[in-house]
Structures are given as structure tokens and as C-alpha cells.
Amino acid sequence: MNRQTFLRQMAILSGGVTWGMGSFSGRAFGATPFAVKTRGNVLVIIQLNGGNDGLNTIIPAEDDNYFSKRPDISIKKADALPLANGMYMNPAMTSMKSLYDQGQVAITQSVGYANPNRSHFRATDIWNTGSDSATVWDEGWAGRFLEMQYPDYPVKLPKDPMAIQLGSVESLLFQTDVGRVGTVFEDPNLFYQLVSGSLADTELPPATLAGDELAFLKQIASSSIQYSSVIRDAANKAKNTYTYPNTNLAKQMSIIARLIAGGLETPVYLANIGGFDTHANQKTQHANLWKTISEAVSAFQNDIKNQGLADSVTIMTFSEFGRRVNQNGTQGTDHGTAAPMLFIGNTVRGGLIGANPSLTNLDSNGDLRYNFDYRQVYSTVLRDHLGLDAYKTQSLFKQTFERLPIFRTSPDVLPDVVGMELNPPMPNPVSDLAIVQYVIYKPVLDIKISVHDLQGQAMREVYQGTRSQGTYQLNLSVLGLSRGTYIVRMASSSGLSQHQRLIVQ
Question: Which domains are assigned to the chain?
Fold first, then answer.
């Protein structure tokens, strides 16, 4: 944790009075939780460690180039599972194909970024932080999101963990500038047993530099004690309603389902599966991995459906990179670039998103070009599933990224059709002052934002001028407007136009 930030927050909490652990018991941090929130949407991330081969996951089985570049590891059209537009699913993914046929799987094709890194470690850090290839960040994109959602952390702890990872070592995904916001364990009851006999050390730390940091460590220890009971109780409160396969990933997914059904309001979960670094003898190994994922995901979907939770939970897969187009000399593939990402749930539109990967228009290294920047995908998840607004999403990535038609609440067209976006005013209804956010994806000349009545008469001009790419917000005063319904309209000289309803009370 950044020590200055911690001390500043301690001063705010205590009104500037010297603070020490002696005034808090181990459970005291749980005594002043955040206000109880209604259950929101949940994101379950499955990380495919090692670099997933996209071309043998979602297969261009009608492209002759695919077979010529992969004479030994290609999958025949007759064996693969048909999707659409000449693309097929790996034959081991029958459970996933069943979900796809029900409209519960969206596949974003060829996701990557410019100048991709081929190191497992660096590439994983890039995907976990949301940076570009030349920029090193040490905070995870999910961690930054959770820091926005829980601004009082770590002075006050929410009643439920902000993020949960099934595993042993916490991912960079959950790192923030005020510490790590994820809780990591492999089994809820073992985690509870590990700390159940512990008591928080309430002895006053010394008034030294080390004492200040010791106070922080004691707070983290107390949060582990608090959350061990919360996690154990949620896991024991609910039962899985569907039989899961006997695999490690399926066990992780079954625990996540129990925690969600048990009432945890944790918004982000992370599960892991390794083995995707398929440099040799890829064909069978890769198929077995996707069979494991498909069956675990299918069981999870059936389970949360039975529990009445399927409309709020989405699964997202990602890997640090794809594989090369050409097979290597050991019937495998080496580190490559772009690959598909899968989204599973009742929340998604379903189907293929984006053009099929081109096996002829390759980059200078002979690898796949990406259709979509991976931060477009993350921005879509944050805004359309986790409810982050456009302004905060831009600040999280330090750039504006156009969303993709992944969710039912997402734009229903690909980004090249959308030049700008007007978001609903907040608050709405409004009695005095509303905030209007809008996004410019390409430089637009002569933008005009105005308020009209339902007969189309202009009542108020809010903004007129030129904007470069970015996310903006402005204040809209409704003082002087009669009560009723109005239209906020944004139009440009190029003919683009959008509008949102505004209710004045």
C-alpha cells in the first residue's frame, strides 16, 4: 500500500487524531461496513494460462489456408461444430455449443492490441492491468474498478469481499494503489479453519515509521478474520443444485456458484486453468482443456439457472495471447497474437462478433491481426455489465474505447458505425442540476447539445463546438423549465444524432 495514502485516510477517519490499533478489536472493522447494496451483476473471469490457440478453438474450417498452414493439427470441417459465417467450434466443446445454440455464448473474434508482447509474464501483466504494450502499470483494471466502487477502502471494509480468486497467489488483476482488494483461497472451509483460531493483535503499534505500516498489516489481518467467516457462512448456506465434473476448474466454478447463491455481494470472481502453452502435441491436449472448460461452464450455468441467478452473472474467458498461425515442427504452436474471447450467460446477445480472422492479411511477423483492442472488451464489460459510467471508464484506462455488441444492453452495432454517444442524464428525474456525459469516438465537427420539448421546440442550448476523441461531461441546469418530459439531443454536422429523455420535476 502507498504509505502516504494510508496515513491520509487514517487522518480523515480519526479527524487528525493519532490513530492506533489499540482502539479496535479484530471484529471492529466489520462493525462499520459500507451501506448494504442491492445485489448487482457479477463477473466471473476464467483465465486460460499459457496462451490459448484461438484458431483451434473457434475454427475457420472453410478456409483452405488454415489446413495448409496446419497440416497435422488442423481440425476437419466434418468433425467440428458449426457456428456461422464459415466458423466452427472445437469438437470437444459440445457443452459450450449447446449453450451457444441457446443464445448464451458471445464470441469476440481476434482480440488483441498493438505491438503485442510474447512473454507469458509481461503479456499477462498487460491483460491484467489494461495498459498498452509500452506502458508498465502495477494496478489491475479490476482493482481500479473496485477502488472506484468502494472509495473508503481500506479505512472501512465492505461487509463482503470486493473480489474473490480461487487459487493460492493473488493476481495482479486485484492490485490497487491502496493495497490488494482480492481475497484468495482454494476452499472456503479450509480458509476459515486457517484463521478461525486467530485474534487480531490490538496492542498499540509504536509511534514510528514501522509502527504506521504495522498498523496497516494488522488491519489486513483483521479483514482476513472477518471475511473467513463471511465466506464460510455463504458457502455453507447454499448447495450446488447440479452435479459438476470431477475437475479442478469445475470445483472452482462450483464454489463460486455456492458463494453467489449464498448471498455474497462480491462483484468479481477469478478462476484459473493452465496448460495452454501448447508448443508440442497440441491437438489432443488443447481439445481436452476446452472439454474441461465447456463442461465446467455448462454445469455452472445450469446451477445458477436453478438458483434463479442466471440473469445477473456473466462468465468471461481470457488468455495472455493466442498462438502462431503456422504449426511448428513438434505438432504444436508457438506464441502468437490475437485470439477469441468468450462470454457466457443470459446477459449476452449470443453469436459471433467481428470479422473472421484473416489467414492471408497477416502482420509483419506472419501472425494474426487483431480486430478489437482488448480494452474495448473490458470497457464493454465495465459499462454494460458492471455499471461503471463512461467518464470513470475513460479515467480507468486513460483512454476512450468504443464498446462492442456483447451484452443485451450494449450498442447493437459494431464500432465503425458509431461516432459518438450520448448517455442518459443523471439524476433523472431532476429538479435543479443534471450531469450529461457524452463520448466522442472520432473527432467530430460542430457538435450541438440542446434540450427540446416533446413537440421538438428547442428550449435550451447546452453546448456547441468541436470535440476530439474522449469522454466529456457537462452540467445541465433545468431551472426555469416547467415540470414534464424533455429530450436532450446531441447532433453533429456529419448527420449523426442521438437523444435521451429527461424528466423535470
Answer: 3-397 (3.40.720), 419-504 (2.60.40.1930)
Map 229-298 to HEC letters.
Answer: HHHHHHHHHCCCCCCCCCCHHHHHHHHHHHHHHCCCCCCEEEEEECCCCCCCCHHHHHHHHHHHHHHHHH
Confidence (pTM): 0.83
Predicted confidence (pLDDT) per residue in 155-176, tens digit: 788 999 999 999 878 899 999 9
pLDDT at 31 over 50: no
Q: What angle do CA 357, 359, 361 make, to 5 degrees?
A: 90
Return d(Cα 289, Cα 276) in angstroms, integer. Answer: 8
Distance, CA of 79 to CA of 201 (rounded, Å) = 62
Q: Is 330 left (phi over 0), alpha (psi -120 to 50) or beta?
A: alpha
> Distance (Å, rounded) from C-alpha 336 to C-alpha 244?
33
Cβ neighbours, 10 Å, residue 309? 16
Quote the CA–CA distance of 167 and 190 in Å, as a whole number: 12
The CA dihedral of 301, 145, 184, 24, to the nearest 10 degrees, is: -130
Residue 367 near residue 135 (C-beta atoms within 8 A): no
Cα(274)–Cα(335) distance, rounded to whole angstroms? 15
| Cell numbers at 451, concatenated | 434540450
- Residue 125's H or E segment, with its range, is helix 120-129
Contact 375, 137 (CB under 8 A): no
